[in-house]
Amino acid sequence: MGNADEGVRLLQFIQLVISGLAQGCIYGLIALGFVLIYKATETVNFAQGELLMIGAFAGLFASTLLGLPYWLALLSAMAATAIVGFGLERVVLRPILGQSAVSIVMVTIGIGYMSRGLVTMLPVVGTDTHTLPVPFRGEVFHVGGVVISAEHIVIIATTIVLCALLAAMFRYTKMGIAMQAVSQNQLAAYYMGIPVKRLSSLVWAIAAAVAAIAGILLAPLTFIHANMGFIGIKAFPAAVIGGFTSLPGAIVGGLIIGVVEQLAGFYLMEGFKDAAPFIVVLAMLILKPNGLFGETMRKKV
């Protein structure tokens, strides 16, 4: 009897870890946007969660109004949200560059509030929740007694593919190498002939597209609504844990937050689930202030 109970508990633990990894991938993708923008512009974009929300609604409209299949709706949402991110950098952020960091942060917070307000004003959206039609909804796979939903598999697989594509871009393309140079030293990159302002806009576009992917992946789990962007608050600790200047660290931090959140929600008292990410951040700031993969060396090109 004891061995049977231990087996059930082990299966429960594995189930929670898998769910946590899937949720952590969402956090990691949002944190990836935080890190991309911070490395390129030294700006913290607190509207990253709202870009996720905009991307989710763009995918919903592409799927329901235009009748596009799931993957084409995903690509359409990425393109639409990338344009939004590009425009925000050009129209809103660029004119205030050089102002204090607090001013820029407040502007990004304001962008988030305005985005939620504008979305709720749309007649077909409002404050209702919406369901994104996905071809794999409800499918499950049984692996050694563990039940894995197709949604979780798609989230994890898509995150792996996206991270591989981003890594290849930063390593093998001229644009990626130029972005790395800008992230190290903007002034030196400018004197070397790198179009710093143009690359900053592209980074915002890429971060917005990544947020759109996170929104589409999250939609089958939590539905689509105007307040879904608040998930960005939990993704921010993921960026801090991984190191705010590390792209791999953003994903690792997201996975840590996702697993800790799931385990805390199941094994600890009610309320610890939402508090767990911030407890982990406090512990990280005490033990390793730069994060797991944070840079401690001086910037250089």
What does this structure look like?
The structure is a single chain. This protein has 301 residues and is mainly alpha-helical. It has a single domain (15-287), classed as Orthogonal Bundle (ABC transporter involved in vitamin B12 uptake, BtuC). It has 11 helices and 2 strands. The protein has helices spanning 2-41, 48-64, 70-93, 101-121, 150-172, 174-184, 186-191, 196-222, 232-242, 247-267, 272-287, and strands at 140-143, 146-149. The protein has a two-stranded antiparallel sheet with strand order 1-2. Strand 1 and strand 2 (146-149) form a beta hairpin. Helix 2 packs parallel to helix 4 (101-121). The radius of gyration is 20 Å and the shape is globular. The N and C termini lie far apart (63 Å). The model has no long low-confidence stretch (mean pLDDT 86).
Structural class: mainly alpha
Oligomer: single chain
- CATH topology, which one? ABC transporter involved in vitamin B12 uptake, BtuC
Average pLDDT, to the nearest integer? 86
What is the H/E order?
HHHHEEHHHHHHH
Report the major sheet. Answer: 2 strands, antiparallel
Q: How many H/I helical runs?
A: 11
Task: Count all strands and give the number.
Answer: 2
Cα Rg: 20 Å
Helix content: over 70%
Sheet with most strands: strand arrangement? 1-2
Low-confidence stretches: none
Q: What is the total domain count?
A: 1
Per CATH, which architecture?
Answer: Orthogonal Bundle
* Alpha-carbon distance between the two ends: 63 Å
Q: CATH class, anyone?
A: Mainly Alpha
Globally, the shape reads globular
Q: DSSP strand (E) fraction?
A: under 5%
